[in-house]
Amino acid sequence: MFPQRLDAPQAFDIAQAMLDGFNRHYQLFRSESARAKQRFEAADWHGQQRAQRERIEFYDLRVKECVRRLEQDFGAGALPMAVWQQAKLHYIGLLVNHFQPELAETFFNSVTTQILHRTHFQNDFIFVRPAVSTEYIENEAPSARPTYRAYYPQRSEAPRPLLATLQRIIADLELQRDFEDLPRDLAAVEQAIARQEMLGRLRANFQIQVLSSLFYRNKGAYLVAKLINGYAEMPLVLPLLHGPRGALVIDAVLFGEEDLQALFSFARAYFMVDMEIPSAYVHFLRSMLPRKPRAEIYTALGLAKQGKTLFYRDFLHHLRYSSDQLRIAPGIKGMVMLVFDLPSFPYVFKLIRDHFPPQKDTTRAQVKAKYQLVKHHDRVGRMADTLEYRLVAFPRERFEDALIDEIQQFAPSQLEISDRDGDGRIEVIIRHLYIERRMIPLNLYLQEALEAGPGDANAQAQLARCVVEYGNAIKDLVAANIFPGDMLWKNFGVTRNGRVVFYDYDEIEYLTDCNFREVPKPRNEEDEMSGEVWWAVGPRDVFPQSFAPFLLGHPAVREVFMQHHADLLEPAFWQSHQERIRAGHVHDVFPYERERRFAWNLADDPLAR
């Protein structure tokens, strides 16, 4: 129960100290995000990558700083619970006119759970549910930049009002680098917009709403907007790149929810966006991505802790309104991870086994380091993002007995079954857990096509599509300096849009750390007939020619693979990419198909996908 009076003298100071800690965090986060504009204008790609990696660490550093301050100034760990209850109420009061109240509440949770050593969200001392609304937050200062700007082409007196409006939109971005041929690019955008069916008849409210900040990632900047005409709305995105002659180009024009889903995919790196009011950006994006959880949108914007908070709230809500049980996930069991899922919930839960078979020469710490590597690396749309949790509590009755037996057998150190909260309900507590979007395992997807047989045209198209996508996924990872390690089909998944994504990280390495070699020629007949490796193999040696027996056992699979990706079986392919990366080249990543690019950009980069 909350106290009737706020009479603890240090409670307000504790609340203010925590808010000071959050404000410092968000100021640094926002400043780093804002500097992405200068790095883009200067084509500082290595600086952009470094900033994206370093920004991920900002939150935990600021939480640790705040914990230290509260311990030093207030002896926080020894304070009675009544003080923390009052500190929370003061904190709520301080957030009434704050521009990032939802992020500040999550920061409060992070700090207090470290100090109080609380294990679950279900307690009175943190924000289990949001206490301060994020609706209609506005900065009323005359100098404040709005979340978005609305442009009305029909109000223009220019001969081509839509073109004139597009020129004004680009000018308002205030980019400090010239375009290669802006009239050419805008004319192409104008034509593409004019062809949209929703604009067949222009209504009185026809407008283009444009988010004020560009979205920066890798070597691109993305203008995110939506077209509104009558009752119809449509997402509109303009990717901006550096052309081959050093000036800026508009690379393509993207429309609709499907294109936006690909842009904000869970398998891509986080954006850098300068947002004073992040909830307003999320609200704008959610209007165009109604099927995408708010948790994933916050995460895509670099606000991963807020994404975790919202994900867990969504999960608790789903548990309340569902009745199915957590089970061992379908598919081939891994040697490093135990995987389980809830059939009605589109995610999988992964925990590290306590012991690994001899062929897996690794440790728990090394596996966690691999997952951390992926978190910090450019995922190029081919590696699933993971949410990492500790001490997660589930109701015991929601577990199948077979799953409990599996965890007790292979990961007992990660399992506790108890009533730790003392509320009379037995819970299953997992000490360390990764959570990922659920996908169809590629081996199952491929097997489904193979079982349908050569007479089924749809199955043959599915087979060809997934084999080609599999090779494309590996090549995208290679371009990003990632060697998957274990390339078996079971370690890849198929998204709902048919994209192949890698999700088993315990053997990944940087491409530049590997030694790609030719398989030596047999020295004699005994070598040739040997079923064992007779040559010396170093710890980082990789023999691409040896991939085929493990991957291409079925003739139909082999035919498609050799037609599109035979180069993956040659050391020269891998070595050439190593040389390019070591020379400092930063690859291009396009979250849209090559065919969507304007012809003049495509001509300059004929090999880009």
UniProtKB/TrEMBL annotation:
Provide the GO MF annotations for this entry.
[isocitrate dehydrogenase (NADP+)] kinase activity; hydrolase activity
User: Where is the Isocitrate dehydrogenase kinase/phosphatase (AceK) regulatory domain positioned along the sequence?
Assistant: 15-322
As for family, the record states:
Belongs to the AceK family.
Q: Where does the Isocitrate dehydrogenase kinase/phosphatase (AceK) kinase domain start and stop, copy by copy?
A: 324-593
Per the record's keyword annotation, is Zinc-finger included, yes or no? no
Cross-referenced Pfam families: AceK_kinase (PF06315), AceK_regulatory (PF20423)
Q: Which residues are listed for ATP binding in this entry? A: 329-335, 350
Reactions listed under catalytic activity: L-seryl-[isocitrate dehydrogenase] + ATP = O-phospho-L-seryl-[isocitrate dehydrogenase] + ADP + H(+)
Organism this protein belongs to: Comamonas endophytica
Q: Where in the cell is it found?
A: Cytoplasm
Q: What is its main location?
A: cytoplasm
The UniProt entry annotates the active site at: 385
For this UniProt record, the keywords arranged alphabetically read as follows: ATP-binding, Cytoplasm, Glyoxylate bypass, Hydrolase, Kinase, Nucleotide-binding, Protein phosphatase, Serine/threonine-protein kinase, Transferase, Tricarboxylic acid cycle
Q: What is this protein called?
A: Isocitrate dehydrogenase kinase/phosphatase
Task: Describe the function of this protein.
Answer: Bifunctional enzyme which can phosphorylate or dephosphorylate isocitrate dehydrogenase (IDH) on a specific serine residue. This is a regulatory mechanism which enables bacteria to bypass the Krebs cycle via the glyoxylate shunt in response to the source of carbon. When bacteria are grown on glucose, IDH is fully active and unphosphorylated, but when grown on acetate or ethanol, the activity of IDH declines drastically concomitant with its phosphorylation.
| Top-level taxon of the source organism | Bacteria
Look up keyword Disulfide bond and say if it applies: no
Q: Which InterPro entries match?
A: AceK_kinase, AceK_regulatory, Isocitrate_DH_AceK
